[in-house]
Amino acid sequence: MLDNLKRTLSLKAPLIVEAFQNPVDESKFSELEEVVKEKLPADFRELYLNHNGFSKDKFANLFYGFPFSRLEDIISAQKKLVSQNDMKPLRFSDEGIKSEYTFGKKRVPIGDDSGTSLLCVDLDPGKKGTFGQIIMLDYAMGVALLLNESIHEMVSQFEIDLSEDKYSLQEDALEDGVHWLKPIREIEPVNWFNSPRWGYVNEALKTS
């Protein structure tokens, strides 16, 4: 799944390629499934059988500018959730995303910005959503955005965006000898409030 992507990264951000870990121990899939009470999508397994996220010793990021989480960290985070979800409603969610809660065991975080947002595989979509869809959860603002219908689509889109130079290397990170990808505003969900792509969210929040 990641072979073409890694070839592109090796030209544009080779230090990120060095951050990939070895494939995950397959027993971890059963452990996560026991926690979330759901069968994992095939492309989730495929992704982690390529690489088990990024090494903790490396400072790197990937899809939409999020670091790539290890499966052990995902399991630990979901185990900390006492119930299936926190029942804290979102202020805004795209169609296809349930708005009744913010954190939930079936919103599986494959990316964490360690600040305000998570990149999640959604195993509990709304009526018009897709099982395994990719969402950005801004838990500080109570906003959830639909980014892709699957991990496969996310990876393909990332490859396209990377080849079209929609990601650049952040200057201050380069000064520290680090490759850190900075998405253009149009495709940076963490900064949705400053992007014309998600202007409709600001409008909806004003009237809510």
Description:
- By secondary structure, the protein is of the alpha+beta class.
- The protein is built from 8 helices and 7 strands, in the order αααααβββββαβαβα.
- It has helices at residues 3-12, 14-17, 27-36, 42-50, 71-79, 151-163, 171-175, 199-207, and strands at 92-93, 107-112, 117-122, 133-138, 143-148, 167-169, 181-183.
- The strands form 2 sheets. The protein has a 5-stranded mixed sheet with strand order 1-5-4-3-2.
- α1 packs parallel to α6 and α3 (27-36) runs parallel beside α5.
Largest sheet, described in full?
A: 5 strands, mixed
How many strands in all?
7
Order of helices and strands: HHHHHEEEEEHEHEH
Q: Kindly provide the radius of gyration, computed on alpha-carbon positions and rounded to a whole number of angstroms.
A: 17 Å
Short structural summary:
This protein has 208 residues and is an alpha+beta fold.
Blueprint (SSEs and pairs):
Layout: H1 3-12, H2 14-17, H3 27-36, H4 42-50, H5 71-79, E1 92-93, E2 107-112, E3 117-122, E4 133-138, E5 143-148, H6 151-163, E6 167-169, H7 171-175, E7 181-183, H8 199-207
Parallel strand pairs: 1-5
Antiparallel strand pairs: 2-3, 3-4, 4-5, 6-7
Helix pairs in contact: 1-6, 3-5
Which structural traits does this protein have?
five-stranded mixed beta sheet, alpha+beta, 208 residues, 33% helix, globular, single chain, two-stranded antiparallel sheet, SMI1/KNR4-like
